[in-house]
Amino acid sequence: MSLQRKNFVGGNWKLNGNKASIDGIIDFLKAGPLSQNTEVVVGCPQCYLQYTSEHMVAGVGVAAQNCYKVKKGAFTGEVSPAMIKDLGCEWVILGHSERRNVFGESDELISEKIGHALASGLKVIPCFGEKLEEREAGKTEEVVFAQLKAMLPNITDWSRVVLAYEPVWAIGTGKTATPEQAQEVHASIRKWLSEHVSADVANAVRILYGGSVTADTCRDLGGRPDIDGFLVGGASLKPDFVKICNAWD
C-alpha cells in the first residue's frame, strides 16, 4: 500500500441491531485497542444514526447506509445528506450491491446520489462490483469500469471519496476472492482511474475490498499493494472486527 494512503475499514451493519447490540459493539470497539494507523467508520441503520453517533468511541466515524439525491421534498421513506449531517454523521455508503440488486438502483441514480452527498459536505463510500455470472463470463472489468464511469461526472471532490470494490458473488456467500484475484481487480481499477481521472487521484484514493472479509483473511488481503482496507458486513457486528481493523499492525 502507498505510504500516502491511510488504511481504512468500514463496518456495514446492514439491517441489523438495536440499542442493546449497538452498546455491545461500542464496548468491544472501546476495549480494542484500535490501531491508530487505520481509519474506522461504521454504517448503521438510519434510525440509529443519532444514537450511534452520540455513543460511538472517539475517533470512529458513523455512516448512513443510504441517502437520496435531494435536500428535502415529497420522498416518503428517504433520508437526505442534510439530515445525516444534522445527526452528527459525516459519512454515507452509496451504491451497495444490495441497493443495486435488491432495490433496483441504477448507475445513474447512484451517481446523482453521490453528487448531492458530496455537494452537501458528506464523505462518500461508493460501492461497485460484478455478479458471479459476470465474473464467469469474463466481464469483471467491463462491469466495474461501467459503474465507475457513471459516477465520474458527479464526483467533485476525490479527497472525500473512498471507493469500495465488492464482488457480489463473495458477499454473504462464504466465498472470498483470493488475495491475488482481489489485488488484480484493485490494480486494474487504479490503472483505470489514472487513465480516466488523473494519476494523482489514482495514487491517492483508497480502494477497499468488500467480500466476506474475516479476521483470518484480512492480513493477507491487506498486504496487497492496491488494497487499502475493507468494507466489512457481518464480521463488523462481532469482536473479531477489531482484528480486521488492526490487520496492518
From TrEMBL:
Pathway: Carbohydrate biosynthesis; gluconeogenesis; Carbohydrate degradation; glycolysis; D-glyceraldehyde 3-phosphate from glycerone phosphate: step 1/1. It catalyses: D-glyceraldehyde 3-phosphate = dihydroxyacetone phosphate. Its EC number is 5.3.1.1. CDD domains: TIM (cd00311). PROSITE patterns: TIM_1, TIM_2. Keywords: Cytoplasm, Gluconeogenesis, Glycolysis, IgE-binding protein, Isomerase. Pfam families: TIM. The keyword Isomerase applies. GO terms for molecular function: IgE binding; triose-phosphate isomerase activity. GO terms for cellular component: cytosol. GO terms for biological process: gluconeogenesis; glyceraldehyde-3-phosphate biosynthetic process; glycerol catabolic process; glycolytic process. InterPro entries: Aldolase_TIM, TIM_sf, TrioseP_Isoase_bac/euk, Triosephosphate_isomerase, Triosephosphate_isomerase_AS. HAMAP family: TIM_B (MF_00147_B). NCBIfam families: tim. Homodimer. PANTHER family: TRIOSEPHOSPHATE ISOMERASE. Belongs to the triosephosphate isomerase family. This is Triosephosphate isomerase. It comes from Meganyctiphanes norvegica (Northern krill).
